[in-house]
Amino acid sequence: MRMVDIIEKKRDGKALTKEEIEFFIEGYTQGDIPDYQASSLAMAIFFQDMDDEERATLTMAMVNSGDYIDLSHIKGVKVDKHSTGGVGDTTTLVLAPLVASVGVPVAKMSGRGLGHTGGTIDKLESIEGFHVEISEDQFTQLVNDDRIAVIGQTGNLTPADKKLYALRDVTGTVNSIPLIASSIMSKKIAAGADAIVLDVKTGNGAFMKTVEDAEALAQAMVCIGNQVGRQTMAIISDMSQPLGHAIGNALEVKEAIATLRGEGPKDLTELVLTLGAQMVVLGQQAVTIDEARNLLEQAIEDGRALDKFKTFISNQGGDPSVVDDVSRLPQAQYQYELAAPRTGVVTEIVANELGIASMMLGAGRKTKEDEIDLSVGLVLNKKVGDNVNEGESLLTIYSNQEEIEEVKQKLLDNITISDSGDAPTLIYKMITE
Ligand code: URA
Ligand code: CA
Description:
Blueprint: H1 3-11, H2 18-30, H3 35-48, H4 52-63, E1 79-83, H5 91-100, E2 106-110, H6 120-124, H7 136-146, E3 148-152, H8 159-169, H9 177-190, E4 195-202, H10 211-227, E5 231-238, E6 246-247, H11 249-260, H12 266-282, H13 289-301, H14 304-315, E7 334-339, E8 344-349, H15 351-361, E9 377-380, E10 387-388, E11 393-399, H16 405-413, E12 415-418, E13 427-431
Helix pairs in contact: 1-3, 2-4, 2-8, 4-9, 4-10, 5-11, 5-12, 5-14, 9-10, 12-13, 15-16
C-alpha cells in the first residue's frame, strides 16, 4: 500500500477502507509516514469529510495505537463524561461524587493540562493532603468499595492522536468534525469507558461558536460511540458566559461543595442534573432520564452526595473537614470588588476573556512549567440577565497581587451592561441516540 494513493483517493472524495485507515495511523505513529503526507491527508479529510464507518474505524485505529486502560476488574458500567472545554466549568467536581452516591462507578483518570484554571486534579489538590498518586490496585479497590476514585494519567494513551493533533494545530486542519470527533472519542475509549456522556459547549467561550456546529459535532461523536459498542449521549450547552459563579481552583471546590449541598448556582446545578441523569441511565441505575434525575435530586437533598464527597476526599489522603469548613481551603490575600459603571441589565460576560483574566491572576497555566496559585480567581456576583445598579459589585477578584489595574480593565472591557436583555438558554439540546 502507498500513502500517496490513499491521499489521492480521499482528495477525490472516496471513502477509505479499514486497511487504508489502519495503514495510515500505524505508519504515522511509527514514523514511517512523514508529516507532509499526513498533513496532506488531514487537509483532504477536512474538505471531503468521512462517512460514519470511516470515522468509527479512524477512532478505533487511534485507540489501538497505544495503551488501553483495562477497567474490567471494576464492577458495573463505567461511564465517563467529557466536556469540550469552557470557563469556570466546575461540573466534574460535582458530578463525580453525585453520580457515585447513587451507584454509578466513577473511575476517573485525569491530567493537568493547560488552561484558564487548573484541571480537575489541580482543583482537588487545593484540599490539604489530597493526592492522585495511587496504585492501580488501590484505584480498583476504591472504586469497587466506594464507587469513586481519581488517578493521575498513566500509560501511553492514543499516541496517534497526540501526534496528529499537534500536526493539525499547525496545518489549519483542527476544525474538521471527523478529526475532532475521532480525537475526543479515541481518548475516552482508551481510558476504559464503557459508556460516554458528552457536554458539547457552544458560544464565544467554546470551540464550536454556533449551536449548529456544536450539534453536528455531538451527533458525530454519539454515532461513533454507538458504532463501536460504547453507548453515548450528549447535550449542547451554553458557554457564552462562564458557568456558575466561581473561576479558580479552590474557589471552584467551594462552589462544588455548595452545589452538592443544594445551594449552588442555578446554571451549574441544572447542568449537573442534566448530565448526571444521562450518566445514571447509561450506568444502569435508572431506566428513564426523569427517574435518574429524581434519584440525583434525592441524593443532594438527603446529604448522600456530600457524604460521598467526604469519603472520596479522605480515601485519597485529603482532609474531609473542608466540606464543613471551607475556610480551610487556600485563601487569597486580597479581595477587590469590581463596581458596575452604570445601572442596567448585564447583557454580556465574555467567557474566554474572563478565563484569561483569571490566568493573569495566576489561576491557570500558560505553559506546562507554570506554577498555579490555587487560591486566586473570580467570583461573579451578577450573571447575564441580572439587574445591576451603578456602583454595585459585578464580581469579586481574589488576588495575591496588590496591583490589579490591568485585570480590572480587562474585566470591565468584557462585561456589557445595557438597558434590557435576557439570560441565555443554558441547554439547547439533549441527544440520547
Ligand atoms: N479536542 C481534542 O481532544 N481533539 C480535537 O481534535 C479538538 C479538540
Ligand atoms: Ca464555576
